[in-house]
Amino acid sequence: MASTEGQGKGITEEDDGVEKSMEYQLKKYLLLLATLVATVTYAAGLNLPGGSWPEDAPAKGRLAGDSILRETNYTRYIVFYCFNAVSFAASLVVGLLLLVLRKGVTVYLLHFMQMVMVVDLLGLVGAYAAGSSHDRFTTACGAAVLVSGVAAYAAVAILSYVVVSFYPRLRRTPTQSRNQAQAESEREILLVLAIFAVTIAYVAGLNPPGGFWRSTEEGHHTAGDPVLQELHPGRYRAFFFFNTTAFIASLLAIMLVVDHRRNYFKLGMGSFSVRYVALYGFILTALLGLSGAYAAGSCRDSKHTIYVLSLVAPVVACIILPGLLVDKATDQATTAGMR
């Protein structure tokens, strides 16, 4: 009877459980993602990258408050504006869909919401690429990091498929491998970290430290270009690389969390998940990228940079050690209970 009712809703009991464990159980965190994306894209649309002209210039047809980027690079301005607007609108749609999301919702609505979320994140990537690229290096660096991230995500998906398809004996069910509630809790925490990283990296990429030049000086700088890029090119490149890496890694982590599949595999006496290993790798990459971007962008001399970098190891240790201690205590408790 329950199965018949589930089919009447366009989704079986088993499928309903799968959908509920993904979008429905992550509902409040996906709503947080949509809210923060709408916030940063709204702010970026009102305060465009490159800044605004401080004074009128009637001879050049320029008014104070007009976008500098629109005059210096109109193509980049249009591309950024379109992608940013698409991401803003998509995040609002995702937020509205999440508000009406229920356990018994049809598969079609879930697929539509997933499609809008993909459009939302792709719009964010396009706006970041157009708004943060100021020369050949930043364009090439951003493209290289994006391609590397997509390749890593594809490798994870292919590896998961290969292991499941060709080594079915290694597969374990979630109840055999680990506590389901603990896995869901970890997924929620990792999603919050990824959301935190992607919003910070997006804002920092569009508004790099040091601000923008407000005027053009032939042979020296162009209005709308980052000041740090001209005065400290090495630091600016390091900042851009680390910040872009954090941005892309956090986006991939979000995609892995939302598209998570519980495929656990035996490995000796324990078990592991290809997607979970990749997820932790992306999160760690994002946090290290933020640390590197902070060190490069917040300091202007080597001494203070070393001070900031020296904090990375203790922070990473504080993140990893508690998890290891908790896992060890859990294993000991499980072993004692079996005895």
Automatic annotation (TrEMBL):
All residue ranges annotated as the PGG domain in the record: 25-133, 183-300
GO cellular component: membrane
One Pfam family, short name: PGG
Membrane spanning stretches: 29-48, 78-101, 108-131, 143-167, 188-205, 238-257, 277-294, 306-326
Keywords (A to Z) from UniProt: Membrane, Transmembrane, Transmembrane helix
Keyword Protease among record annotations: no
Kinase listed as a keyword: no
Entry-linked InterPro entries: PGG_dom (IPR026961)
Official protein name in the record: PGG domain-containing protein
